[in-house]
Model the fold of this input.
Amino acid sequence: NAGVMQNPRHLVRRRGQEARLRCSPMKGHSHVYWYRQLPEEGLKFMVYLQKENIIDESGMPKERFSAEFPKEGPSILRIQQVVRGDSAAYFCASSPQILGGGNEQFFGPGTRLTVL
Amino acid sequence: KNEVEQSPQNLTAQEGEFITINCSYSVGISALHWLQQHPGGGIVSLFMLSSGKKKHGRLIATINIQEKHSSLHITASHPRDSAVYICAVTHTGTASKLTFGTGTRLQVTL
Done:
């Protein structure tokens, strides 16, 4: 049973370009979370999705950032017109159906975005 | 003030020492998680607990809900335990998104 897959592992973009980060959850997991880790800082929640639905996007910057989790295929975190401050490690995590007390989350290896 | 506070921020220990990392939180939670982030950046979930104590190998995690405090213990520490240990909580009623502490960087030397 493969773990959470993220690609690319490393992504370099110039200012103004678009970045697309992909996350394939573990088999059988229908819940996906995106987190960002800025250099020398802790992890911060960005967005929580289920298939075809955004459940909580309270951690997403209001502009340039969007996320989706289509019925088929991976979850995508999209950053338009990237700026140097977007340089960070972006982690995806997945969990199975949510129980009352929450579920353990399984993390992918992360995508390290560098904006030149 | 952060909702999740960890101490110490940095910790150096000699191989074989007993290690304790502390986590305090200020919100109602449904679960507390301990994560390990290796120098290469990968994150591994160590424990998820909502009460009592859990043990896995040389790792032990405890939580006191009344005091809003959790500890992660490592017995007989080894250099391969060197990593950043992160405490995270799931707030009550927030559908499992995690709020993280800033992490404790552990270095175990020979």
Observations:
- Residues 46 and 56 of chain B are 8 Å apart (CA to CA).
- The first strand of chain B starts at residue 4 and ends at 7.
- Chain B touches chain A at residues 30-31, 33, 35, 41-45, 48, 50, 86, 88, 90, 94-103 (CB under 8 Å).
- The mean pLDDT of chain B is 93.
